[in-house]
Write a structure and sequence with these properties.
This protein is α+β, with helices and mostly antiparallel strands. It has a single domain, classed as Immunoglobulin-like (Sandwich), CATH 2.60.40. It is built from two helices and ten strands. The strands form two sheets. Strands 1, 2, 5, 7, 9 and 10 form a six-stranded mixed beta sheet that branches. A hairpin with a 5-residue loop joins β3 and β4. The radius of gyration is 23 Å and the shape is elongated.
Length: 167
Amino acid sequence: MAKSNAIAALIAVALCISSLLISAQAGHDFLFVEGRVYCDPCRVEFHTPLSEPLQGVNVRLDCRSRENGTLTYTEDGVTDPSGLYVLPVEGDHEEDICEIKLLSSPRADCNEQFSSTDMARILITKNVGVAENTRYANAIGFKSKVALPACDKVLTDMGFLPLPRED
């Protein structure tokens, strides 16, 4: 009898602890956006083996209402030595259009924004079937003022035609 009471008490304690953990997780209403910023030394606006991470780039997350375009959330961040940024995002933004934008590059030799895209769009909601709290944005970057001479070989090795010469 005493043994069954002890087992019942142990089960009751386990249920209480698990319900506390579940309620603590429910109160945790943060997601994180993670991405990388790089310097494109070949001026092709995509990552190559010569691309370098950019430290100290100022990035901004803007979320806007799908209905009227009003700003609903914003968060700024800075990249680390590996070009990585991690932004905490409070709340769920399922009904918003959220974009990571580059604000400035600390490198004078690599501060020209891409002409094809200057942002990475990202879905920030828990209602997408992803269990973890991190959302990963596509890498974005700046391009250098002049393409490196080594870019021709790298691009050829990647299956692209050599770059036209800027004379």
